[in-house]
Amino acid sequence: MILTVTLNTALDITYRVRELRPHASHRVTSVTERPGGKGLNVARVLAALGHEVTVTGFTGGPTGQAVQDQLTSTPGVLDALVPVSGSTRRTIALVEDTPASMTPDTTQLNEPGPQISPAEWSAFQDVYEGLLTSVSVVALCGSLPPGVPVGAYADLVRSARAAGVPVLLDASGEPLRRGVAARPDVVKPNAGELAELTGSHEPLQATRNARRRGARAVVASLGPDGLLAVTPEGRWRATPPARVRGNPTGAGDSAVAGLLSGLVEQLPWPERLIRAVALSTATVLAPVAGEFDRAVYEQLVGRVTVTSEATAA
């Protein structure tokens, strides 16, 4: 069983419009709603790959109920979300319908999330520690809602390590900085998050610096250029065969799902990276986050290039 933690769950709403223009009214051509937040996206991809996943985090209000209703209809996903008095946030993606020769532009609007009380945070920690007794790996994903301590991920990493459960951290800013110091097994930042963490804009140097701060392995997402991994076993770059056009929202979450599934299946690092790049690329071609184009994924698995840099970091 895999556990994903999404402290700031959301209802993801995607509006498609022909063209987004400031100070104008827009006719929406289609609307989709899905459970959202990084860890829920990860869970849905893992379930589609055939893994059983438990999801936890906070949920509240009518929006939270809508998230839970959709989760319960997803085969392979178990709901262990903790109720709170505030309302789960919404995230709005405005996707422009563009000519086939152009990449669609996406504008993202993210609400802050409900205010979490000290009692609600304590209740979550109790649930989390109980879940750690029955899972093989845990992923800590996304932003923190108001009221959750900035060192929350560091505390959750330490709890997982004490329970002997490998932990992957996918966060940003100060929560990432503190979480890395608690020594997670894997950290998966994007290029911007990595530069903010280390002060370096050179990917290899920044990734190595992130390892020195405490992470056992660092897998940096380089957008359309794939992934860069620095681990105790070695360094690898994994790149897709070509750039694709589409909506990149959720591509990083699919990469996390690929890394987690490879870990629980005990695949070597190069095969984990191939799966992660293939999934993230196939997600760009899907209409919403938390989904991927399976036919494209299966084609890409045999075409992703992994280059070993040989020397262990």
TrEMBL record:
Pfam families given in the database record: PfkB
InterPro entries associated with the record: Carboh/pur_kinase_PfkB_CS, PfkB_dom, Ribokinase-like, Tagatose/fructose_Pkinase
Coiled-coil segments: none
Keywords of the record: ATP-binding, Kinase, Nucleotide-binding, Transferase
Molecular function GO labels: ATP binding; phosphofructokinase activity
Tagged with keyword Transmembrane: no
Any one cellular-component term (Gene Ontology): cytosol
Domain annotation Carbohydrate kinase PfkB: ranges: 12-287
Keyword Transferase: yes
One example of a Gene Ontology biological process annotation: small molecule metabolic process
CDD domains, per the entry: FruK_PfkB_like
Gene3D superfamilies the record matches: 3.40.1190.20
Homology family: Belongs to the carbohydrate kinase PfkB family.
PANTHER family attached to this UniProt entry: 1-PHOSPHOFRUCTOKINASE, 1-PHOSPHOFRUCTOKINASE-RELATED
The protein's name: 1-phosphofructokinase family hexose kinase
